[in-house]
Design goal:
The complex is a heterodimer of chains A (about 650) and B (about 290). Chain A has about 650 residues and is mainly alpha-helical. Helices cover about 75% and strands about 0% of the residues of chain A. With about 290 residues, chain B is mostly helical. Classes of the chains: A mainly alpha (about 650), B mainly alpha (about 290). Strand 3 of chain A pairs parallel with strand 1 of chain B, so a sheet runs across the interface.
Chain lengths: ~650, ~290
């Protein structure tokens, strides 16, 4: 097992060199496919091996631990220098301060701090299993998609940009390696290192095009994530100085043991720091700006940041520490921020029409729900959170790829321009429909999770948090429904456009179809998943076995599930043969013979435009974004003051 | 609750619901007419209308519409069965909103200006109502410690209205929107002479429109059932009280319908959410405090 894990972490880093040095496009593509294939096989193989071996939690080290410790220390310093260099190069020197402070803090403590007991650096348990499958499978599929997409991106659409595909593809592999390392680490120092790599890599990916907007947005992402890195650095410092440990699980257990006894807030301090770091990474308000800005990058990197990596690192950490957040200040902070983000981001999603932006807001909103679940810290919510993570990873990756393909084919990613997509590009439209359905419809993952989350929030002990969370979820569900249905309703129906050639590459379709199949498999397999993966997971964390969702409800959900697929299909087949007289739509008698043009006041035919509701005066970005930032900043500051102040 | 009783309840719902709600609709028209100083049609008129609609020639702008409307009807009926057979109330709400989505897709698939207008207004209506519907489920959970409807009824020693007055007020408020009554008959209306034709149903003719009407009857059955749930106890005689309450609420809706003028959707959204937060939110908060 050690060998497999070593390979899983190190191979992507080493493989990244290949696309970086090979500049022949065909040859490079081959190696990227091969690399992605190896990562998929390796991650699935490792997961299956571990599962078949009985699913025991393993604590272990990589072979040559000392060498790796050295590499990590060197790596930390290298990243610091890189950030400093780049931020001075682009005249944003202040940002380097964040990097310098935290890196020197960690490195200094390692050199001059008290001698620590040597504990295994890595750990493999049920949550790790779920995460490596998400990273390995969904991430690699994005890698496969990226090859075709980037080809079209440079050859057909953005001839003016410098072709840095080698760099781009290399970064994707670095991302995999860092994510694998992150989910295996139990030493905070190791975790910090991988955490920093993901921050820097995402910064580099966002700045890919080197346009002014891209550079600004990438630095925004950098400073926000570095701020989060400071949180981990602070947690390490507190861990070393106060408890003489940098082991994540020791810190969690200490917090669980002492967390409830009120006067010992010092034990909650590292948890609060880690939670803060995770909130920045998972793009919760007030740190949502970086994920919205990440849109400027080519689609595969958005897909990567939104689904399999980056933001999932944040929620992964929150799920890890959630047991230590049950019913205390940190948990309340995280739950409130999550719930608030769920509502605010879904309101904001109503007012935008750029497809990628809708997806970005929906990611933030959905992560808000996950974060809220972890902040609650009960078995039910963790169950819900892990389900949401899985479903969100698959459906969001699929949606981003699909919107990217639509943009490449039709030249626009605006939702308004997708009128009647079903009529012109049925394959893309169906993928889009499945993705959207996976995000919010009954009985897909979101519904199951929402059911469990709502139940758990009602039972949360703090009256204020409980009432607020219930309201957040109820209103957030309504707004979520609104923006997704609105989008769905655009896709069906007639299109004013002519059919044209579908420019989507074959490998893009392979990746998207694979996602669609995974989506369906996940839905069908959800009782199995709940029983065999999530149950042991919560047993691991909480030491109890509890049926989160009753047998009866599972049956109802399966009925609903069958319903969503089967009822429309049966009805479709039954009505297919029915005789209908085709008529044109009602336009008050002003039709010009089809459904798209009408006779205008001047007597000339005029094309009719039908637009969705965007409610800019109620839900607009201008109106809501700044207040949302202020409210969430206020919540974080107040709770951090309580925890930090109480600790000393 | 045994399987047999569940099946009996489900079948009763399936068969009786259209008759009862259709009849109520007939009385609605009669009473409305009397309020406006007219004679009004026979109370059986809704059934004649439905029959006539089913017999009409099938005209359509997009044939795909029919299967989505049928799916809409099927999902509403499925939700109703889940409700009356005493399953999970939260899942009933989720299933209802899934059903609503099919109606939206059906009406929008025609690319017609009037139905698109109605569709978006319908979406705003759904958004206005959904928080309150979910909160009703939450309220029952707080009062009865379960989402399961049969357990909710079985565990009631006194009517839930005692614990959930705020939820009840909020729910009755959104019922006006759900029943498509004035002042919130924004997406479609039960009166002729509308500036947006028939909103979300503009492009639905003949049997399509008949199915939508039928689906609405089934849905209204569920909504009135939820009203009844506030008054039911484990005592069988409480059914009388529940039926009386349903009739009172029903009459109230007619009264509101006939005494108010339509508002804009912005105001509807604000009012519905405002009432939800104030009435249901306060009730929720107090219940949480009592529970500790």
């Amino acid at each position: 097992m050690e060998m497999l894990v070593t390979a899983l972490i190190c191979l992507p880093f080493l493989w990244a060199i290949l696309p970086a040095v090979i500049h022949n496009s065909k040859c490079r593509a081959f190696f990227v496919y091969l690399g992605c294939g190896i990562v998929i096989v390796l991650s699935v193989f490792t997961a299956v091996q571990w599962y078949l071996a009985g699913g025991q939690t393993l604590n272990f080290d990589l072979p040559h631990r000392e060498a790796f410790d050295g590499v990590i220390l060197f790596g930390d310093l290298f990243l610091m220098c890189l950030i400093t260099y780049l931020s001075f190069k682009y005249k944003k020197g202040v940002i380097s301060l964040l990097a310098i402070v935290q890196t020197l803090l960690v490195a200094g403590l390692e050199f001059f701090g008290p001698e620590l007991e040597e504990l295994p650096a890595l750990r493999f348990d049920w949550l790790t299993l779920v995460m490596i499958l998400i990273i390995g499978v969904v991430g690699s599929l994005i890698g496969i998609y990226a090859v075709g997409y980037m080809h079209g991106y440079h050859i057909h659409h953005h001839k003016e940009l410098t072709d840095r595909r080698s760099f781009f593809l290399a970064m994707i592999f670095v991302f995999f390696g860092a994510m694998f390392g992150l989910v295996f680490s139990q030493s905070l120092i190791w975790m910090y290192f991988f955490w920093e790599i993901t921050s820097v890599t995402s910064f580099l990916l966002i700045g890919y095009t080197r346009s002014e907007e891209a550079i600004n947005n990438s630095f925004k992402a950098l400073w926000m994530n570095l701020l989060g890195g400071c949180g981990i650095a602070a947690a390490i410092a507190v861990g070393i100085l106060a408890f003489n440990t940098v082991n994540l699980y020791d810190i969690i257990n200490l917090a669980i043991e002492h967390g409830t006894s009120g006067h010992t807030l010092i034990f909650l301090l590292p948890i609060a720091c880690l939670a803060f770091a995770a909130l920045t990474k998972s793009a919760q308000f007030p740190f949502s700006g970086w994920l919205l800005g990440a849109m400027v990058a080519p689609t595969p990197s958005s897909a990567l940041l939104h689904s399999a990596t980056m933001v999932k690192a944040g929620v992964y950490l929150l799920i890890r520490i959630s047991a230590a957040m049950a019913d205390n200040y940190v948990g309340n902070m995280v739950a409130l921020i999550g719930g608030f983000t769920f509502l605010a981001a879904s309101c904001l999603a109503i007012s935008v029409s750029d497809g990628k932006k809708v997806l970005a807001y929906s990611t933030i909103s959905n992560l808000g729900l996950i974060v809220a679940c972890t902040g609650c810290g009960y078995e039910e919510t963790i169950w819900a959170a892990v389900f949401l993570v899985i479903f969100h990873a698959v459906s969001k990756s699929m949606l981003f790829q699909c919107v990217g393909a639509i943009e490449n084919t039709t030249g626009s990613r605006d939702v308004e321009d997708m009128q009647g997509l079903m009529a012109i590009f049925p394959k893309l439209a169906i993928i889009l429909m499945i993705g959207i359905a996976g995000m919010f419809l009954a009985p897909f993952g979101m519904l199951i999770s929402k059911w469990a989350a709502l139940k758990a929030f009602i039972d949360t002990s703090s009256v204020y948090v409980s009432s607020l969370m219930v309201l957040f979820i109820c209103f957030g569900s309504a707004t979520t429904m609104f923006y997704w249905t609105k989008w769905m309703s655009k896709i069906l129906g007639a299109s004013p456009r002519e059919k044209s050639r579908d420019l989507t590459k074959k490998n893009e379709y392979i990746s998207m179809f694979f996602h669609a199949i995974m989506m369906v498999a996940l839905i069908l397999g959800f009782p199995w998943l709940s029983e065999h993966i999530l149950k042991p997971l919560s047993e691991d964390m909480f030491g109890v076995v509890k049926q989160v969702i009753s047998y009866q409800n599972i049956i109802i959900m399966i009925v609903l599930l069958v319903g969503v697929f089967v009822i429309p299909c049966i009805n479709y087949l039954m009505t297919k043969g029915s005789k209908a007289k085709q008529v044109i739509t009602y336009m008050g008698g002003a039709n010009v013979g089809d459904n798209f043009n009408f006779v205008s006041a001047t007597g000339d035919p005029k094309e009719m435009h039908i637009a969705n509701f965007y409610m800019e005066d109620i839900m607009g970005e201008k109106k809501l974004f700044t207040p949302a930032i202020m409210i969430s900043t206020f919540i974080i500051i107040v709770y951090m003051i309580i925890v930090v102040g109480g600790a000393f | 609750m045994t399987i047999q009783t569940r099946v009996i309840f489900a079948i009763c719902y399936l068969i009786l619901c259209p008759f009862i709600i259709g009849l109520l609709d007939g009385f609605d028209r009669k009473i409305s007419a009397r309020m406006q100083g007219r004679r009004g049609p026979s109370v059986l008129q809704p059934f004649f209308d439905l029959k006539k609609l089913f017999e009409k020639e099938f005209l359509t702008a997009n044939k795909a519409q029919l299967f989505m409307i049928r799916s809409y009807l099927c999902f509403i009926v499925l939700s109703g069965i889940l409700f009356f057979a005493g399953f999970d109330i939260l899942l009933v709400v989720f299933s209802l909103s899934t059903a609503a989505m099919f109606l939206i897709l059906a009406s929008t698939s025609t690319h017609s200006p009037y139905s698109a207008q109605g569709t978006h207004r319908e979406l705003v209506q759904i958004m206005s109502c959904e928080p309150m519907e979910l909160l009703v489920a939450v309220g029952f959970y707080l009062a009865a410690e379960t989402f399961n409807i049969s357990d909710i009824v079985a565990g009631a020693s006194s009517p839930y209205i005692m614990y959930l007055p705020g939820f009840f007020v909020g729910f009755v408020f959104i019922l006006t929107i759900k029943f498509r009554k004035s002042p919130f008959d924004i997406a479609t209306s039960h009166h002729a002479h509308q500036e947006v034709i028939k909103g979300v149903t503009s492009e639905m003719v003949g049997k399509e429109y008949a199915m939508v009407t039928l689906a609405e009857w089934y849905e209204n059955g569920i909504l009135l059932g939820i009203v009844g749930l506030f008054f039911l106890t484990s005592n069988i005689l409480s059914v009388i009280g529940a039926v009386a309450a349903i009739l009172v609420v029903w009459f109230l809706e007619i009264l509101i319908d006939n005494t108010s003028a339509r508002v804009k959707w912005q105001l509807m959204l604000k009012l519905a959410w405002g009432v939800t937060i104030i009435a249901a939110g306060m009730n929720l908060f107090l219940l949480e405090i009592i529970r500790g």
